[in-house]
Predict the structure.
Amino acid sequence: MKNNPYFKKLKQYAVDQALTFDQIKASNNAQVANILGIDESRLEPATYANMRGAVLKSLQEDIDNADFDNIKTSGIRTWLENNFPDYEFEKGKKGGKPFVKIWYKGKPEVTDNG
């Protein structure tokens, strides 16, 4: 979906207008079609719903990435560098929820004991 020109246009509109997640969720197909400059009947109702969901997911990922970058560049980083020079960060998602792991003494190596 991220390469879809309609998705890109809708996401950019949401960013430019600083729409909240609630505003995006509450938008109806006619409003989305109007933003995209197309007739509402051009796309299936499920496509509009999928597009709104993809925009919400993408915006949340952007926020999560910015938060992670902020952790890496804030005072936390300086404190870690001063107290744990071998620290490492890892970010990921589990169950749809983002997380950050910090290893103070470097990331442990995983070995296969099989």
Remarks:
- Residues 1-73 form one domain.
- The chain has a mean pLDDT of 88.
- The beta strands are 88-94, 97-103.
- Helices lie at 5-16, 21-26, 29-36, 45-73, 75-83.
